Amino acid sequence: MSQFTSIGANDGNAAIIGDNVYIGPNVCIIENVVIGNNVTIGAGSVVTKDIPDNATAAGNYAKVLNYNKPGRYINNKWKV
Q: 13, 42, 45, 51: which has the fewest Cβ within 10 Å?
């Protein structure tokens, strides 16, 4: 997760975020959306709908751009 990211909801639950997800700077994730595993979200995006596994999404409002190696930008994965 990059700087200046907002995740929240006005009513109900906030987002559910999967594993191995890259969230670019200045992204807003709004309301009860599900972000799948191995997803990349581009900088400045506003996510208002679910994003499926293995997708790259961007825009205002975010939409899926492709399914070509979305995790390629994640080099330092969190290890537990």
A: 13
